[in-house]
Amino acid sequence: MKIRTKLLISICFVPVLFAVLILVGLVQLNSLRQANSAVQSSFEAMTVVEELHIHFKDASIHLRNIVLTDDPSVREGERGMLLFEREEMRERLALLGTLSQDEELGPLVGRLTESYREFADYVDAALGYAFAGDREAAVAAIEGRSRAFHDEFFITIQAIHDVFRKNTIEAMNAAQRQFWRSLLSGYFGVLAVVLLALGYNSGMIWRIVERVNRLSTVMANVARGDSDLNTRLEVKGTDEIDAAAGSFNLMVQSLQEQAEREKNDNWVKTQIASLTTELTGSKSPEELSRTFLSKAAPLLEACHAVFYVKDEEESGPEPVLRLKASYAFKERKHLQNEFRLGEGLVGQAALERSPIILTNVPPDYVTVRSGLGETAPLILYVYPVLFQDDVKAVVEFAAFRPLEEHRLAFLEEMTASLGIILDNEMGRIRLARLLEESQQLTEELTAQSEELKTQQEELKAINEELDMQARALRQSEERLQQ
Fold this sequence. Notes:
Blueprint: H1 3-68, H2 72-99, H3 105-131, H4 135-224, H5 240-279, H6 285-299, E1 304-310, E2 320-327, E3 338-340, H7 344-352, E4 356-359, E5 368-369, E6 374-375, E7 379-387, E8 390-399, H8 405-481
Antiparallel strand pairs: 1-2, 1-8, 2-3, 4-7, 5-6, 7-8
C-alpha cells in the first residue's frame, strides 16, 4: 500500500473527527436555534404586548383630550389620532394571536381581545357624548370605566409577560441540558477517534521513519563517496519510499552513465590531442599516414587499416587516391593501390564526402592473420578526410565488432582534425620541397656564375697575351721597316 493511501486513511480520521464535531455542533446549534427561536418569539410577542399597552395609553389620552377640549379643530385632530391608535391596537392584537400558540397564552390573549372590544365600545360611547355636546356624560363615562379598563389591560398584559418569561426560561434550560448532553457525547466520540488515529499514525510514522533513515543513509554514503555509484537500494513495494528508492537507483545509474560519458569524452579529447601532437612535424605523407594508423588502429581496436592520400600532383581529369600506409595489412583480394572518385568503397566515400560503414563483410574479402590462426573481420569503416569540403584522404578500418560510441566519436573527430593536419603538413612538405628545389637552383646558379667568372679570367688572359703578341708583331714590323 502506498504511503499516500496510508496517509489518506490516516487523514480520513480528520474528517471523521470533524464529522463528530460538526454533528455535535449541529445538535448544539439546533438546540441554540430552538432556544433562540423561543426567545425571539417571546421577545417579539412581548414587544407587541408593550406596543399594545402604549397604544392603549395613547388612545386613553386622546379620548380625554377630545372630551376636555372645546376647539373643534383640536377635537377632530385628536379624534383622528384616537382612531389611529384603535387601529394599531387591533393590528397588534391580531399579530399577538399569531405569535401566541401556547395553550396557556390562548385564554389570556382571548381575554385581552375581549377587553379591547369593551374598550372600543366604551370609546365609541364617550365619543358620542363628546360630539353630542354632553361633556358631563362623557367625563362620567371616562371616570367610571377608564380605571377599570386600564387595570384589566395591565393585569392581562402582566400575565402574558409572566407566561413569556417562563417559556423563555424553560427553553433556555432545555437548550442548556441538550448542549451539555451533546458536548459530552462529542467529547467521548472525539477522544475515541483521536486515540484510534494516534495509534494508527504512530505505527505508520515509525515504519516510514525507519525506511526513510535507511534511504537517507545510503544516499549520504553515496554523496560522501563512502559508497560507489554501483550502490543500489532494494525496492520491495510500490509506495512513495520505494518510488524514491527507484528514483535514487535511476539517479545513480544516470550519474554512472554521465561519469562514463565524461570519461569517454576526456578519453577522446586526450587521444586526439596526443595523436595530433604525434602527427605534427611529419616529413612526408607516408610518414604521416604510418604514424596515424599505428596510433589510431589500436585505439579503435581495428585489426586492419589503410590510408589513401589524394595525389596533389596528379594532372589528370580526376583526382587519384594513392595508398600511403597500411596497418597489419599486406595482401587483399584484388589488391589495388590507387582509386579514382567513385571507384570502390574508397572512391565512393571520397565522391560522396561521407562515411561508409559496411557490415557483414564477406569472409574472403580480407583475412586477419596471427601466429595462432586467421579469421575475417565483420565490419568496415571507410571515412573521407576533408578540409574545407575538399577530400584530402580516405582511411579504412576493419574490425571484428562495431565500434563503441566513444571510439566512433574519436574516429569522426579525428578524421575532421586530420583534414586540417594533413593540409598543413602537405603544405609544409610542399614548401620544404620548394625550398629544397630553390636551394638546388641557387647552388647551380652559383656554380655556373663561378664557371663564367673563370672563363672570363681565361678570356682576359688570352686577350692580354694576344695584345702582347700584337705589340710584339708591331715592333717587329717597325724594325723590319727600318
